């Protein structure tokens, strides 16, 4: 009994000594690649160590160092193909980004027009963001490099796209080939956010019609001649910032759990019809949150809540500075007993009203 125990203890000690040794080797590797040649130490034969031990140490690297290590040599490239899961956000813009999202720290690769920043890493402690800068002479090259970088990372790790952000203003109508590339390399992903000013409706529609996003869509695009958009009703969340074309009939046709609109011409009478429809269980049975701008705050209570029984509740404060609560909540009850809080806020764009049917949303 004693001999097997001693053997196992000896093996464990050897394994831990090797792991700590390898951690020191990785540290030396990361330091030496930034050290001038005249002061570098002799190279350690890292790749001659046991395969399993090497892979265990590589798993401890953050994604940015993992990619850098894989590019050191062909042997490093072969060792680096671990299936470590990461979710990423791709930002298509004149200075594109790829963000590794999971974990307490976000790791971001940023393309920059400043040559002196190339290769620099900057940690933003207050945001827990670790930035790596890459130089590119122009935005077109930068977007192509973003696509190449994503494909390379995808070949190393189990990378899945969680969110795509598209900043249309920087593409001047040249983004369709990039949309086609994304559709080919990411058949579907959970969330899409589109931004832009003075854009053509057909360009926005091309993005929406040719990408498959399964959960969330946020549209912050000011189009030249706005028209109603074709949006999948299978989504969970829809946010539209420039909603001059949105009507009550359009909202009543939607089935999302979370709806938010800005810049609409909806009247308090329209809002009253929507609230009553929900209270009487005629529509939006699974609604969690509804938000829209107020075109007339003064008569919101008289018209927006007309013939709706309510009791006053406490103020519902939202985190951050974007929403400032202006009065207590109006607590209403649906026919099946489900309660909701109707709250008014002051935002940068004016007054808005939000109906929460799940108070957990207040912390999101």
């Amino acid at each position: 009994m004693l001999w097997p125990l001693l053997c196992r203890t000896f093996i464990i000690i050897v394994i831990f000594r090797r792991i700590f040794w390898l951690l020191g080797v990785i540290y030396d590797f990361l330091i030496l690649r930034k050290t001038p040649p005249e002061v570098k130490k002799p190279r350690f034969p890292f790749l001659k160590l046991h395969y399993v031990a090497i892979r265990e140490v590589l798993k401890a690297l953050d994604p940015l160092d993992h990619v850098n290590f894989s590019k050191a040599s062909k042997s490093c490239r072969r060792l680096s193909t671990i299936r470590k899961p990461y979710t990423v956000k791709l930002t298509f813009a004149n200075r594109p980004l790829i963000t590794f999202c999971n974990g307490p720290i976000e790791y971001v690769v940023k393309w920059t027009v400043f040559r002196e920043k190339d290769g620099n890493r900057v940690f933003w402690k207050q945001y827990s963001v670790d930035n790596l800068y890459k130089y590119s002479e122009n935005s077109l090259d930068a977007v192509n490099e973003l696509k190449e970088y994503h494909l390379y990372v995808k070949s190393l790790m189990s990378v899945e796209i969680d969110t795509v952000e598209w900043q249309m203003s920087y593409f001047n109508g040249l983004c369709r080939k990039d949309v086609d590339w994304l559709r080919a390399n990411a058949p579907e992903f959970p969330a899409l956010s589109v931004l832009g000013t003075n854009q053509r409706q057909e360009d926005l529609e091309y993005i929406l019609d040719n990408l498959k996003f399964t959960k969330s869509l946020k549209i912050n695009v000011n189009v030249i001649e706005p028209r109603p958009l074709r949006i999948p009703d299978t989504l969970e969340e829809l946010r539209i910032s420039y909603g001059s074309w949105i009507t009550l009939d359009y909202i009543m046709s939607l089935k999302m759990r979370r709806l938010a609109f800005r810049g609409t011409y909806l009247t308090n009478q329209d809002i009253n019809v929507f609230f009553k429809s929900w209270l009487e269980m005629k529509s939006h049975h699974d609604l969690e949150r509804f938000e829209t701008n107020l075109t007339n705050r003064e008569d919101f209570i008289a018209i927006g809540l007309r013939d709706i029984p309510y009791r006053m509740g406490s103020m519902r404060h939202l985190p951050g500075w974007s929403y400032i609560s202006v009065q207590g909540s109006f607590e209403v009850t649906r026919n099946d007993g489900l309660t909701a809080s109707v709250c008014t806020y002051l935002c940068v764009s004016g007054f808005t009203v939000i109906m929460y049917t799940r108070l957990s949303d207040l912390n999101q």
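Confidence is low (pLDDT under 50) at residues 359-364. Residues 268-364 form a domain with the Double Stranded RNA Binding Domain fold (CATH 3.30.160).
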